[in-house]
Amino acid sequence: MEQEQFKKATLHLRGRLLSYSEYWLGNKADAEDVVQEVYFRLWFMRDELEAVENVEALAMTITKNLSLNQLKKRDRENRELNDRLPSEALSPVLLLEQKDETALLMRLIAGLPALQQSVIRMKHIEGLETEEIADLTGSSPEAVRMNLSRARKRLKDLYLIENK
């Protein structure tokens, strides 16, 4: 496969691959690195791509696998970092406080109106972008931003009330 054929077969996939990797990683910079690696691998297998029935499916599979590998690497690095932290940084008291704070936030989120709950979970828990949330909810990006703003303000107010 020549360079022009390769471009024609793969370049239009870049945005979709980037979104998919960012969905897994929650980080645009890491997603860019993964997509670059995907194109690198596709380039080296360009001669076999002509026989591939669905290049997009292959690219998406490579993207998913590389993204998952990146997550595993991150997890390993985090575990190694935690092993090097002083033992008091991971004390049971601190762990319990973190767990309590998380439980409180999840309870406060559950008390929000349904749309605000969905939007805040998609944005801050699942790591989706505003445009992706707009597509999933069938609303405009501006409406998503407004609902996020309202939900954050409401959570802040509720959190302050709970911690008085």
Write the SSE topology:
Layout: H1 3-10, H2 14-25, H3 28-44, H4 46-49, H5 55-84, H6 92-110, H7 114-124, H8 130-137, H9 141-162
Helix pairs in contact: 2-3, 2-5, 3-5, 6-9, 7-9, 8-9
The oligomeric status of these chains comes to: single chain
Q: Name the helicity range.
A: over 70%
Question: What gyration radius follows from the Cα positions, in whole Å?
Answer: 21 Å
Number of helices: 9
CATH structural fold name of the largest domain: Rna Polymerase Sigma Factor, Chain: A
- Structural class, from secondary structure content? mainly alpha
Report the principal-axis shape: flat
CATH architecture of the largest domain: Orthogonal Bundle
Name given to the CATH homologous superfamily of the largest domain: RNA polymerase sigma factor, region 2, helix turn helix motif
Task: Work out the number of β strands.
Answer: 0
Strand content: under 5%
Task: Work out the count of structural domains.
Answer: 2
Order of helices and strands: HHHHHHHHH
Uncertain runs are none
| Largest sheet properties | none
